[in-house]
């Protein structure tokens, strides 16, 4: 799943290549992925792109039209979605229902992009709105962890009294925006913290480590994503992982074996020596430590 660093990489890439270009047409190939109807998709035609920004894991393309503010194209790539960029957009016709493409956007210089989604479970969503805040998922986002206002004390306030496992807190977009399964694993490994630790149980020293790990992990990942084309961002993400997606491999910090806990539709990875005092987490939903 693309998370904040990869989405920021897409923002930087699109911002550099689309500024001042007009949207010639936007072709919907998967109507189920379109979550709005007013303004219609046709409102994007002839709109000039004025900026590209990010809200958590949502990407926001803003436009100007008819001398004023134009519609925003906002999208969330979900678990299996991606953006495919073309310096020269293909001229082949899209056949709805027979393609992984959900949306194709053609730009005035001949370039453009597709929003695609692999697999049968379709969760990718895009919206045409007057303001990004009109998207419900954007409106309920918590603070961005790389915003200057996200301080150590802000994080401490979010955690205080919250009897929820810290892994879940980091992934909850209404609490902290942009962190998903992969980077929560990485942050907790860097903080030397069990994913099952209760947020309310963290000491001041724990919060210090968690805050530092959050900022450093995400800052490094964003730096790694900056300047890369969309086709290279997924591989860059995988290369940067210390524990996530590395079950059975050696922890680069202590040399222990990276372990997994599997759930219905995902898994988490961690290092027992670095994070759980050598204890192996039970591989079941009850999420108890094996004695």
UniProtKB/TrEMBL annotation:
Domain FPG-type: 242-276
Keyword Lipoprotein in annotation: no
Organism, scientific name: Microbacterium rhizosphaerae
Classification lineage: Bacteria, Bacillati, Actinomycetota, Actinomycetes, Micrococcales
PANTHER family: FORMAMIDOPYRIMIDINE-DNA GLYCOSYLASE
Keyword Hydrolase in annotation: yes
Coiled coil: none
Entry cofactors: Zn(2+)
SUPFAM superfamilies given in the database record: Glucocorticoid receptor-like (DNA-binding domain) (SSF57716), N-terminal domain of MutM-like DNA repair proteins (SSF81624), S13-like H2TH domain (SSF46946)
UniProt cross-references to InterPro entries, sorted A to Z: FPG_cat, FPG_N, H2TH_FPG, Ribosomal_uS13-like_H2TH, Znf_DNA_glyclase/AP_lyase, Znf_FPG/IleRS
Protein name: DNA-formamidopyrimidine glycosylase family protein
Record's keyword terms, sorted: DNA damage, DNA repair, DNA-binding, Glycosidase, Hydrolase, Lyase, Metal-binding, Multifunctional enzyme, Zinc, Zinc-finger
Domain Formamidopyrimidine-DNA glycosylase catalytic stretches: 2-100
SMART domains named in the record: Fapy_DNA_glyco (SM00898), H2TH (SM01232)
Recorded catalytic activity of this chain's protein: Hydrolysis of DNA containing ring-opened 7-methylguanine residues, releasing 2,6-diamino-4-hydroxy-5-(N-methyl)formamidopyrimidine
Gene3D superfamilies reported for this sequence: 1.10.8.50, MutM-like, N-terminal
């Amino acid at each position: 799943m693309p998370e904040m660093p990869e989405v920021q990489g897409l923002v930087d890439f699109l911002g550099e290549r689309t500024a001042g270009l007009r949207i010639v047409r936007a072709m919907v190939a998967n109507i189920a992925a379109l979550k709005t109807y007013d303004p219609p998709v046709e409102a994007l035609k002839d709109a000039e792109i004025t900026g590209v920004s990010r809200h958590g894991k949502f990407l926001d393309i803003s436009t100007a039209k008819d001398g004023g503010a134009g519609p925003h194209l906002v999208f969330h790539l979900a678990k299996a979605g991606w953006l495919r960029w073309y310096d020269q957009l293909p001229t082949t016709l899209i056949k709805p229902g027979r393609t992984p493409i959900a949306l194709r956007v053609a730009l005035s210089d001949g370039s453009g992009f597709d929003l695609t989604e692999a697999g049968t479970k379709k969760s990718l969503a895009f919206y045409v709105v007057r303001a990004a805040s009109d998207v419900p998922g954007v409106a309920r986002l918590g603070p961005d962890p790389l915003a200057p206002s996200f301080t150590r004390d802000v994080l401490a306030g979010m955690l205080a009294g919250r009897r929820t496992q810290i892994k879940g807190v980091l992934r909850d977009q209404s609490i902290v925006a942009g962190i998903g399964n992969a980077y929560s694993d990485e942050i907790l490994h860097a903080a030397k913290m069990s994913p099952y630790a209760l947020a309310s149980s963290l000491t001041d020293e724990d919060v210090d480590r968690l805050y530092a790990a959050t900022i450093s992990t995400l800052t490094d990942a964003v730096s790694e994503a900056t300047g890369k084309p969309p086709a290279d961002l997924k591989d860059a993400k995988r290369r940067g992982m210390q524990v996530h997606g590395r079950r059975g491999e050696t922890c680069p910090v202590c040399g222990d074996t990276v372990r997994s806990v599997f759930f219905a539709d995902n898994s988490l990875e961690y290092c027992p020596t670095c994070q759980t005092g050598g204890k192996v987490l039970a591989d079941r939903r009850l999420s108890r430590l094996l004695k």
